[in-house]
Design goal:
The chain has helices at about 25-50, 55-65, 85-95, 100-135. With about 140 residues, it is an all-alpha fold. Among the domains are: about 25-65, no CATH class; about 85-135. It is flat and about 85 Å long. It starts with about 25 loop residues before the first helix and ends with a helix.
Length: about 140
């Protein structure tokens, strides 16, 4: 038995080396019992599914096939030149007319909002540089 000077067991050292061996608990026994019967369970599930049991079919399909995820196709969309307000209005018009999905419109509006924040930071940095250059003159 090996403890550290802080009273804790060292990593990899059991506090009860003569304890119950791993794999002998109730869960391990249950897993072993089920493991022996897996082929019969699967055969029964397949029979039930092919006989019209929707629950059995669903259970099998969920375990074998990954769920389908919605996928949006790319859409060609031309933003008119202009300020960010004009571009946002164009996106809203495209969504309202059905040329863009609402999800795509939301993503584009979020991108424009991010661009607006970046533009604002750039403008503030430019103004600070001008003020510092003005104050640095003799």
């Amino acid at each position: 038995m090996s403890k550290t000077n802080r009273g804790r067991w060292e990593p990899g050292t059991s506090g009860n080396p003569a304890g119950r061996p791993s794999g002998t608990g109730q869960i391990a026994k249950l897993r072993a019992a089920i493991g022996e019967r897996v082929p019969a369970i699967l055969e029964q599930l397949i029979n039930q599914a092919t006989s019209g049991d929707v629950g059995a079919a669903r259970l099998l399909l969920e375990r074998v096939l990954p769920p389908l995820k919605a996928e949006e196709l790319p859409v060609a969309f031309e933003l008119q030149p202009g300020n960010l307000t004009a571009r946002s209005a164009a996106i809203l018009e495209a969504v309202a007319s059905g040329n863009l999905s609402a999800a795509t419109g939301t993503q584009l509006m979020a991108a424009i909002a991010s661009l607006a924040r970046v533009t604002e930071v750039d403008e503030l940095a430019r103004r600070i540089d001008l003020l510092e250059a003005r104050d640095a003159r003799p």
